[in-house]
Amino acid sequence: MLNPSWIEISESALRHNIRFLKKWIGASATFSSVIKGNAYGHGIETFVPLAEKCGLRHFSVFSADEAERALICRTKKKSEIMIMGAIDDEDLEWAIENGISFYVFDLDRLEAARQAAVKAGSPARIHIELETGMNRTGLREAEVDRAVVMLKSHPESFIVEGICTHYAGAESIGNYFRIKNQIRIFDELSTRMEGEGIEARRKHTACSAAALNYPDTIMDMVRFGIAQYGFWPTQETRMHYFIQHSPESNHRTTQLLKPVMSWKSRIMAIQDVAAGEFIGYGMTYQATRKQKIASVPVGYFHGFARNLSNLGHVLVKGRRALVVGTVAMNMMMIDVTDIPGIQKGDEVVIIGKQKRMNISVASFSDMTRNLNYEVLVSLSCDIPRVVVA
Ligand SMILES: *Cc1c(COP(=O)(O)O)cnc(C)c1O
């Protein structure tokens, strides 16, 4: 392999997560696989065909460029692609021609979609996004009635694929009342649209945390991001699940979600450093004794945060090794003094399991205050992604 590190994507872990999540939402709800942010760092081109192999047929992206990547790499013509965010008006026709559906979050977009549908000679597949309290994007109450008029006067231009919204933090109990209020507003507005004869193919509001914490939000489809990759949105969500659904289980050993990704590299060089010497750039780490220091060709360029300097760990020979000195752009040093038999070329696990040890993405988050999400999407697109069993 030409690359100094690689990311393994586990098919069995993904199958396991999909099985658990599908069972949770029931057979009548569609599982939409959210693949924005380069499939949360897993790599769109690797992840989409694998997810299709595991039975998924609906993909949600943030923007048109991601939709194009999904379109190119999908292996099933039936796989649907939905844009939840950014697409320029001039690209709407392209989306329509390729059967890609997109969110309509204001009246200008609705009009632009109508014009694009006329040009394309086929209807636009749209999702009416309702503003329910996040105050980000979506049609407000007063706009909903105008949208209904537009939809009813141009039935040939639209297929209403969805009516949807997004919750402002369903992963934290601190937002409980805000979320409950959003659910109520969504019900009111969507019922009003239905009363006016606007029947959407699917009502969808839930992300991972909403589906797990507020089952009422599951409706006709769930947009699963983080959970499908094997991560709980927060520890709070995980505990909430266990307390509600399997209080007798052993939380430590019952693995309902399995991390799909591992990140690995190899030892590049080994040096003996005398006591008192400084290691790496600057003077952040001074050897306290004669130490064996190994370099690993992974740095902040690849997504290993510089603020893990003197703080992060990796696994070598099934043992934890501390990152010593400052993480550089392409390299970091680790202390392997107490790990016998280390050799150049030995496997280094940066995220994932080795023998009986494990380094979770959450452990990065604990040390840097970055979310799981941030750690994952920081992983450079240049690192090759390989599917493993
Ligand atoms: C990112 C996103 C999701 C998925 O969120 P997770 O917390 O990763 O499950 C769902 N819906 C929208 C609109 C999003 O932007």
Give a topology summary.
Layout: E1 5-10, H1 11-25, E2 30-34, H2 36-40, H3 44-53, E3 58-61, H4 64-73, E4 80-83, H5 92-97, E5 101-104, H6 107-120, E6 124-129, H7 141-153, E7 158-164, H8 176-195, E8 202-206, H9 208-213, E9 221-224, H10 235-245, E10 261-266, E11 269-273, E12 291-296, E13 313-316, E14 319-324, E15 332-335, E16 347-354, E17 357-359, H11 361-368, H12 372-377, E18 385-388
Parallel strand pairs: 1-18, 2-3, 2-9, 3-4, 4-5, 5-6, 6-7, 7-8, 8-9
Antiparallel strand pairs: 1-10, 10-16, 11-12, 12-15, 13-14, 13-16, 14-15, 16-17
Helix pairs in contact: 3-4
Instruction: Report the end-to-end length measured between terminal Cα atoms.
Output: 19 Å
Q: What percent of residues are in strands? A: 15-25%
Percentage of helical residues? 25-40%
CATH superfamily of the largest domain: Alanine racemase
Shape: elongated
Low-confidence stretches: none
Main sheet: strands, sense, barrel: 10 strands, mixed
Helical segment tally?
Answer: 12
Can you walk through the features of this model?
This protein is α/β, with parallel strands linked by helices and 389 residues long. It has two domains: 11-253, TIM Barrel, CATH 3.20.20.10; 261-359, Lyase, Ornithine Decarboxylase, Chain A, domain 1 (Beta Barrel). It has twelve helices and 18 strands. Strands 1, 10, 11, 12, 13, 14, 15, 16, 17 and 18 form a ten-stranded mixed β-sheet that branches. It has an eight-stranded parallel beta barrel with strand order 2-3-4-5-6-7-8-9. The structure holds pyridoxal-5'-phosphate.
